[in-house]
């Protein structure tokens, strides 16, 4: 395993969203280490995307992390109770990000089950809010350098080609035509994804 370097993050969010599949998200905390394989992502294309927090082009205290150079985390709160983790990508100022939507638990599973108060492995990290609870990711992890901090991404030494499916993103019905973009990607046939869509297409 090796940590992802800066170059990995310096493409647009659609490309990085696909490249992140099969990589590993690791969080080292005082409670222990949790490690999961990324199986589902969503791309957000900044001002080009009505589904993006950055569509207006206005930098706010909530979104300022998005405008940084690729390779840091963007963690925000939804519904006043659930955190979501994004990987900021591409050049500074473009405000492109990739939402980590579902994970396959690999290491620290008992700790993740304690945090989520469940023993159901398939449901442990099959949603952006669920995975943040399981991995102990909160607003404290916002703006973390994903190459050097205790929250980081790794690639296996040898990667086999993946069967990737593209589908519409979840929970952005307000985004007009952008709600129909096939910018959600997941590994085909894995049981750990959040939602399998009928309109999905294999890449």
SSE layout:
Layout: E1 2-3, H1 13-19, E2 24-29, E3 32-44, E4 73-78, E5 82-89, E6 96-107, H2 109-116, H3 128-135, E7 151-155, E8 164-167, E9 184-187, E10 201-202
Antiparallel strand pairs: 1-7, 2-3, 2-7, 3-6, 3-9, 4-5, 5-6, 8-9, 8-10
Helix pairs in contact: 2-3
Task: Characterise the protein shown here.
11% of the residues lie in helices and 31% in strands. The protein is mostly beta strands and 203 residues long. Strands 1, 2, 3, 4, 5, 6, 7, 8, 9 and 10 form a ten-stranded antiparallel sheet that branches. A hairpin with a 6-residue loop joins β5 and β6. The protein starts with a strand and ends with a strand.
Short key terms for the protein model shown above:
203 residues; mainly beta; 3-methyladenine DNA Glycosylase, Chain A; ten-stranded antiparallel sheet; globular; DNA repair; Formyl_transferase-like_C_sf; MPG
Q: What form results from the Cα inertia axes?
A: globular
End-to-end separation: 26 Å
Enumerate the spans where pLDDT stays under 50 for 5 or more consecutive residues.
Answer: none
> What structural class results from the helix and strand content?
mainly beta
Tally of separate domains: 1
Largest sheet, if any? Answer: 10 strands, antiparallel
| Oligomer classification | single chain
Question: How much of the residues is beta strand, in percent?
Answer: 25-35%
- Determine the fraction of residues in helical runs and give it as a percent range: 10-25%
Under the CATH scheme, which class?
Alpha Beta
Annotated CATH topology: 3-methyladenine DNA Glycosylase, Chain A
Number of helices: 3
What does the average pLDDT come to?
95
Task: Write down how many β-strands occur, each being a DSSP E stretch of 2 or more residues.
Answer: 10
* CATH homologous superfamily (4th level) name: Methylpurine-DNA glycosylase (MPG)
Q: Indicate the radius of gyration in whole angstroms.
A: 16 Å
């Amino acid at each position: 395993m090796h940590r992802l370097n800066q170059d990995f993050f310096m493409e647009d969010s659609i490309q990085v969203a696909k490249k992140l599949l099969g990589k590993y998200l690791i969080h080292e905390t005082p409670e222990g280490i949790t490690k999961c394989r990324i199986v589902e992502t969503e791309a957000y294309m900044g001002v080009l995307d009505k589904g993006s927090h950055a569509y207006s082009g206005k930098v706010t205290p909530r979104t300022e992390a998005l405008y940084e150079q690729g390779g840091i985390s963007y963690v925000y709160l939804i519904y006043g109770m659930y955190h979501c983790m994004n990987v900021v990508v591409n050049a500074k100022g473009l405000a492109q990000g990739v939402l980590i939507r579902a994970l396959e638990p690999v290491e620290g599973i008992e700790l993740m089950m304690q945090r989520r108060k469940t023993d159901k492995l398939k449901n442990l990290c099959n949603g952006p809010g669920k995975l943040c609870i399981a991995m102990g990711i909160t607003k404290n992890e916002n703006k973390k350098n994903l190459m050097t901090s205790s929250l980081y991404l790794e690639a296996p030494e040898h990667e086999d080609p993946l069967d990737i499916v593209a589908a519409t993103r979840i929970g952005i019905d307000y985004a007009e035509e952008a709600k129909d973009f096939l910018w959600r990607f997941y590994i085909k046939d894995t049981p750990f994804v959040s939602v399998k869509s009928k309109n999905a297409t294999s890449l």
